[in-house]
TrEMBL record:
Compartments it resides in: Membrane
Cellular component annotations (GO), alphabetically ordered: membrane
Source organism of this protein record: Streptococcus downei MFe28
Any one Gene Ontology molecular-function term assigned to this protein's record: proton channel activity
Family to which the UniProt record says this protein belongs: Belongs to the TMEM175 family.
Highest taxon of source: Bacteria
Protein name as it appears in the record: Membrane protein
Entry keyword annotation includes Aminoacyl-tRNA synthetase: no
Reaction equation(s) it catalyzes: K(+)(in) = K(+)(out)
Bilayer-spanning residue ranges: 7-25, 31-53, 74-91, 103-124, 145-164
Alphabetical list of Pfam families matching this protein: TMEM175 (PF06736)
Keyword annotations from UniProtKB, A to Z: Ion channel, Ion transport, Membrane, Potassium, Potassium channel, Potassium transport, Transmembrane, Transmembrane helix, Transport
InterPro entries in alphabetical order: TMEM175-like (IPR010617)
Membrane topology classification: Multi-pass membrane protein
Length: 199
């Protein structure tokens, strides 16, 4: 299959998902600073989800840049990635309305981890394909970083269910902030930036 068809489909689906995110934002009951402040967790959850999906979109294009054709396996992995991503508006709304609820945070965490694992799978498949700009060393560096990334999110998931409910979303933020400092090199960073947030 020509990659342009999958790229166009992915662009369209992600654009719809990100649009739904903002449409799900609540309006303040009273138009005032206090009214907007009361929705601060809604905006926080929206911001994390939006920029995570946006980063994924940017880096999907970077990682596929050297590909001419794609195989059926990559198509199905991409569909799985989009399926999990399509649940972001739903879980973002849940967690923004019940930020300190462990089940709400855990639901968000499950989607985060599923997208993260799917990204690892996708990069492993990309590394096997001819014509890709990602080298074996980049794939290995990516997977090493992803091991830490996922470990932090798993820790956040456990803390969410046992001790501190907001830990899941904070763990996503921590991995996002550490992204620029912890990745092996600037050249590799340009290629493998996407899934590290979902991550």
């Amino acid at each position: 299959m020509n990659k342009e068809r999958l790229v166009a489909f992915t662009d369209a689906v992600l654009a719809i998902i990100m649009t739904i995110l903002v449409l799900e934002l609540k309006k303040p009951e009273v138009i005032s600073l206090a009214g907007f402040w009361a929705l601060r967790m809604n905006f926080f959850a929206y911001t994390i989800s939006f920029f995570w999906l946006g980063t994924m979109w940017v880096n999907l294009h970077r990682s596929w840049d050297g590909l001419e054709k794609i195989n059926n396996k990559l198509v199905w992995i991409s569909l799985l990635l989009l399926f999990f991503s399509s649940l972001f508006p739903y879980v973002t709304t849940i967690v923004s309305e019940s930020f300190n609820n462990p089940i709400a945070q855990a639901a968000y965490g499950v989607i985060v981890l599923l997208v993260s694992f799917t990204n690892v799978w996708m990069y492993a498949e990309l590394a096997k394909m001819s014509g890709t700009s990602m080298t074996k060393s980049m794939a290995k560096s990516h997977n090493r970083f992803m091991a830490w990334d996922i470990a932090i999110k798993l820790l956040g998931f456990i803390l969410t269910l046992t001790f501190y409910p907001p830990a899941m979303m904070w763990s996503v933020l921590i991995t996002a902030l550490s992204l620029g400092q912890n990745h092996p090199s600037a050249n590799e960073k340009a290629t493998v930036l996407m899934p590290l947030l979902f991550a």
